[in-house]
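Tokenise the fold.
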Amino acid sequence: MASPSSFAALSAKIKNRSARAGIIGLGYVGLPLAIAIARSGFAVVGFDIDPKKIVALDARKSYIDAVADDALNTEAEAGRFSATADFAGLQACDIVIICVPTPLTKHRDPDLSYVEATSRSIAEHLRAGQLVVLESTTYPGTTDDIVKVILEKTGLRSGVDFFIGFSPEREDPGNQHYHTATIPKVVAGDGPEALELMKAFYGAAVTTIVPVSSNATAEAVKLTENIFRSVNIALVNELKTVYAAMGIDVWEVIDAAKTKPFGYMPFYPGPGLGGHCIPIDPFYLTWKSREYELPTRFIELAGEINSAMPRYVVGKLAEALDIRAGKALSRSKVLVLGLAYKKNVADIRESPSLRLIEIIEERGGRADYHDPFVAEIPSTREYQELKGRKSVALTQEAVAGYDAVLVATDHDQVDYAALVKDAPLIVDTRNVFTRLGLSAQHVIKA
């Protein structure tokens, strides 16, 4: 049973908005969350190990599309938001939220090094009366079996001295209809008092709260959401390859199928999966399932199909160059259109475009890219050799100088009508030309 004084004191602070929140990891999840919480009246301190982010935030400059400079400035001017790289400030925080990456290793095992290191940093400053929340996507059991265990090594006990919970992030970069405060928030806690604190705190910042029975259940909710998308995207990617062999346009099939008002939900094929969630999160469950000697065939098969898409697309590109231009890929210059993993955002996390460039160059071709949102390729975990490459201007002369344009991301800012006129060959993985009524003989779908 929790200490009445710890629980009551924190409950009162949350109720009157005097609780101070600390958010560790100011990326695509952490920064929008920090501003949403600050807007609800809480003082928020953001923590990050990247000094460049702290410098930008001190200058009131946002590096995340979902957070406008004006919004950042408003909360900073009101004294509700500040950022620091000094984790000693965690001790002054009543609520501490972990929003750090949870990538995969090269063997597709969970890499929880960021979660573990952050938990140890919190443990150094842990005190009675704090609520610690994990938002990073992970396998069921992480919050209780890893974060809680690390924190309890201090001698303080969860549910007695401090409280711990899990609430999965649900950010969708580029979504104009939903933002952090309007997306329903799943919350869970280690014990009834922790759950009550989670409900009170998040309920003050977001419109809808969805309580579940345990941290493991909440962790499973997030994985289920992403596995659902991964499996269905893999299905249409596989259908794409089968229908293409039959001379059937999969996009036309999907457009007709989605007219059914029940029992069908449209998913669309592409050059591969991108973003932090769908290419990575399902494998957290496949790894955990081994502990129970249970196979996850659907998840693993979906991963294989989706991971194979970049190579399939490059194969279609090579075939188109050979048949249409009489030229080998190894002697061709290719412009990859779109580096971001989805349209109208600058997010390149796990983008299949990076893999497309790599495969083209592995096969001897030369690949450049154009992206109106990504001027230069930043440092990435897996594609360090691409760091520093710059976006090519989409001029008539430049486009005409390439043997083919490979459309990987269908940004709205691109003049596709001009592209049809200027490019000798186009390989379209997004069906953008048909959607815009720009079909042509030299536009090949892949």
Observations:
- DSSP finds 15 helices and 13 strands in the chain.
